């Protein structure tokens, strides 16, 4: 019986897509085009691949602890409720992530074929992708490590390359090459035997674990210790934090894949010509998008006049671009990026500068997702802050208190069940209440419709870390 286990790596940060991507809302959760996020598209793509197996195996999604509720919510939106969400307390790169997922896949004594993909890539031709995956799965069933090699379209210096000459559907990998110079990349493109390494792998769980033990016994041993300390709650697979933090940080490529040629471990490549993009920067988004006759791509309320080869995204207001070429303009609630499209890889330098200056725009959007709903910081000043809050039907905030602020709540729509101290009241539209400083309180939506309210905070300190939680259904107390 052939078992196929899909693994989606969803732990990236996506700093080069700032200001749309933030540390608390990285690019795998973004909707680049259409109706679904990159995570949703990747998970759907992988589940389709797994239908080729003899037994349905729930997808394993490896994600950061801080993103757990966004992963869960986005999967539920596309009808996936059985995925295993494996949580990393901190990022440790892809080799430990794959190892822990492989251990999960083998927990019942099975040895499935692992189909491993990043969550933040784009594929235009799903049928071509499925055909390449079918070839890779057949090869992996015979004990090969298989990497999908992307047909290069330009002399790209931001990717690693795979040397795999020949015309066969499945080719022997002769070498992996680090990110080249422009001149070397041009030679690779002309040669025709070099392919981009897109980070998509297919291999048996036992082959990965034995290869890792051969090349990086330290990672293998540390992962076993972290795996032994795991705990499972209603939705998530959690690893022991102290054991996990001892894991070495290393990529799949450096730990194992690049060591395989000429090592005796069979490693093959299947060419992938499916409109693949890593979507790693705004220039990649522009190249991936359907642009107009002038090379422009607009999302939102945008006007182009005498402008060419540009990408403009507006989330809230009209953005007009006049007489500009090769630019990226991205407008959000709290930040605007204007950049030369060809330098968009360097957006990460802006994020680094924001972090050094302690600016929250590197981490959070103005509108912040929470497991119970969201809040939008719509105004602030000396000793006050105003938030718009939405609570999902049936959801509750934690039982909490604040040392440095009081709060006024005004219901805009829906019904609010408000607990303050030992008293509980129901509030409806246009009704309000006051939460004194230092008083325990909880907000609950008992209705079947979303609850929306305005919160006015006042006090000497208004940071999100001034919350003492006593009870919390989401495990944050």
Q: Based on CA inertia axes, which overall geometry fits? A: globular
What's the CATH first level of the largest domain? Alpha Beta
Query: What is the number of strand segments?
Result: 29
CATH superfamily of the largest domain, please? Spore Coat Polysaccharide Biosynthesis Protein SpsA, Chain A
CATH topology of the largest domain: Spore Coat Polysaccharide Biosynthesis Protein SpsA, Chain A
**Architecture per CATH nomenclature, i.e. the level-2 architecture of the largest domain:** Alpha-Beta Complex
Strand content: 25-35%
CA-to-CA gap between the ends? 45 Å
- Please identify the structural class as seen in this structure: alpha/beta
Low-confidence runs: none
Please, how many helices?
A: 11
Strand count, sense and barrel status of the largest sheet are: 12 strands, mixed
Radius of gyration: 25 Å
* Number of discrete domains: 3
The amount of helix comes to 10-25%
Describe the structure.
With 477 residues, this protein is an alpha/beta fold. It folds into 3 domains: 4-272, Spore Coat Polysaccharide Biosynthesis Protein SpsA, Chain A, CATH 3.90.550; 282-354, no CATH class; 367-471, Jelly Rolls (Sandwich), CATH 2.60.120.10. Helix content is 23%, strand content 31%. It is built from 11 helices and 29 strands. The protein has helices spanning 38-50, 68-77, 94-105, 126-141, 182-191, 205-215, 217-228, 241-244, 252-255, 282-288, 347-356; strands at residues 4-10, 60-64, 84-88, 113-118, 145-150, 161-163, 171-172, 175-177, 194-204, 231-232, 236-238, 267-272, 297-299, 302-305, 311-314, 319-322, 327-331, 336-340, 367-370, 373-381, 384-391, 399-401, 405-413, 416-420, 423-427, 432-435, 441-444, 451-459, 468-471. The strands form 6 sheets. Strands 1, 2, 3, 4, 5, 6, 7, 8, 9, 10, 11 and 12 form a 12-stranded mixed β-sheet that branches. It is globular. The mean pLDDT is 93.
């Amino acid at each position: 019986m052939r078992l196929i286990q899909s693994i989606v790596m969803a732990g990236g940060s996506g700093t080069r897509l700032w200001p749309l991507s933030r540390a608390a809302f990285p690019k795998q959760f973004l909707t680049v085009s259409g109706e679904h996020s990159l995570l949703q598209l990747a998970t759907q793509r992988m589940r389709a691949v797994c239908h080729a197996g003899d037994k349905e195996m729930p997808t394993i999604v490896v994600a950061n602890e801080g993103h757990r509720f966004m992963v869960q919510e986005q999967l539920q939106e596309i009808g996936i409720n059985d995925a295993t969400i494996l949580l990393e307390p901190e990022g440790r790169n892809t080799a430990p992530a794959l190892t822990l997922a492989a251990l999960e896949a083998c927990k019942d004594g099975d040895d499935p074929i692992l189909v491993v993909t990043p969550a933040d890539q784009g594929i235009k031709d799903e049928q071509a992708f499925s055909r390449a995956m079918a070839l890779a799965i057949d090869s992996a069933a015979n004990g090969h490590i298989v990497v999908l090699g992307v047909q290069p379209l330009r002399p790209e210096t931001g990717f690693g390359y795979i040397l795999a000459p020949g015309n066969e559907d499945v080719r022997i990998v002769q070498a992996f090459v680090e990110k080249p110079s422009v001149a070397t990349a041009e030679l690779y493109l002309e040669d025709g035997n070099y392919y981009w390494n897109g980070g998509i792998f297919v291999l048996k769980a036992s082959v990965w674990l034995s290869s890792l033990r051969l090349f990086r016994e330290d990672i293998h041993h540390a992962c076993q210790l972290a795996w032994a300390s795991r705990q499972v709650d209603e939705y998530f697979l959690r690893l022991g934090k102290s054991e996990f933090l001892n894991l070495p940080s290393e990529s799949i490529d450096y730990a194992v894949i690049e060591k395989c040629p000429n090592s005796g471990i069979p490693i093959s490549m299947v060419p992938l010509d499916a409109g693949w993009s890593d979507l790693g920067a705004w220039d990649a988004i522009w190249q991936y998008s359907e642009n107009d006759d002038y090379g422009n791509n607009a999302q939102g309320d945008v006007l182009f006049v005498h402008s060419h080869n540009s990408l403009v995204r507006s989330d809230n207001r009209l953005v007009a671009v006049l007489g500009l070429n090769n630019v990226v303009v991205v407008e959000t609630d709290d930040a605007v990026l204007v950049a030369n499209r060809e330098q968009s890889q360097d957006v990460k330098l802006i994020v680094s500068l924001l972090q050094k200056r302690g600016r929250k725009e590197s981490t959070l959007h103005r509108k912040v997702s929470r497991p119970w709903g969201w809040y939008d910081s719509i105004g602030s000043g000396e000793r006050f802050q105003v938030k718009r809050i939405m609570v999902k039907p049936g959801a509750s905030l934690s039982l909490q208190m604040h040392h440095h602020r009081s709060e006024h709540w005004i219901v805009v729509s829906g019904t609010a069940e408000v607990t303050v101290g030992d008293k509980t009241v129901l509030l409806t539209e246009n009704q309000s209440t006051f939460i004194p400083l230092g008083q325990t309180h909880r907000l609950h939506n008992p209705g079947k419709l979303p609850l929306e309210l305005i919160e006015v905070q006042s006090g000497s300190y208004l940071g999100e870390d001034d919350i003492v939680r006593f009870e919390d259904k989401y495990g944050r107390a």
